[in-house]
Structure formats: structure tokens, C-alpha cells
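Reviewers of the previous submission asked for a worked example of the structure-prediction workflow described in the proposal, so we include one complete record here. The input consisted solely of the amino acid sequence. No template or homolog information was supplied to the procedure at any stage.
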Amino acid sequence: MEDKILKRSKTVCYLALVFWGIWTLVIIMRLMRFMGIINFNVFLGIDIVPIVWFDDEAIIAQCIELAGYIITNIAMICLAFLFITKSLKGIKVNEVFTRVNVRILYIMAAVSFFYELFQANRSILYGNREVVLDSDPFTTTLIILIVAVFYKLALCAYEENRLTI
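From that input alone, the workflow returned the following C-alpha cells.
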């Protein structure tokens, strides 16, 4: 029974790696479209158009938005890859829960706030001059934080179980 669960966990981890690989390609294509390097629409969203750069003070907001968008996307992709690869290494040695993954989840919770904030304000790149602050950054951050706390509790229970056997 335990082998089936571990095999299923490995399969899910590999599928997650494929998903984040596709996400990476989508982000690269979106950035190339933003910069005008490619000029075809791949139907990945209605807002994938070249950036309209302004001459006034709005260009600073556009640069901050673009830099934040790029950095937070790269950070979330790297953290997700790191979490999955550490999980796969742990599964190979029959340690499903690791302390490193707890730290990664806490970092991911912090980065997710800014990721969602920059994601919601992509319209600044197209001329919108208002910053959108909705519930997404807070909700996503809290969900990842709760998962991190539960993961840490599971790690503590796993370590305690291992010591008693």
C-alpha cells in the first residue's frame, strides 16, 4: 500500500514539473510579446499585447510593474521547481516531509503576495494609471501560509513517528 502511495506521489511531482515547465514557456512567450519580439497572438490571454511606453512619469510605474512581474514570476517558478525536486529527492529516500520544504513554503508565501499584486496590475503596462489592490494577494498568501504550517505539523508528526519506531 505504501509503495502505491509513493509511486502516486512521484507521478504527481513529475506532472507538477511538467506543468511548471509549461508555465515557464508561457511566461517567456508573454514577455517576448510584451517586448514586441514576437508579434503573433497565441491566445494565452486577451492582455498579451506589446507594452505602450509613456513619456511622462507613468513610465516609472511601467518599469516597476514590468520588473516586478518578471522577478516574481521567476521567483515563483524557481521556488515551485525547488519544492518539487526536494520532494522527489525526499520520496526516493522515504522521507516525504523535509525541513527544507517548510522553508521553501514560507518563502513562497512571502513571494506570492508580490506575485499576485504584480499579476493583478499588469494593466499598468497598457496605460492604466490605477493600482489594483484586491483580495487575491492576501488570500493566496494566507492559503500558502496555512499549507506551510500544516506541512510543518506533518513534518513534526513524521519525525516523532520515526523516533518511536
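The chain has four helices and no strands. We consider this example representative of the routine output the project will generate in years two and three.
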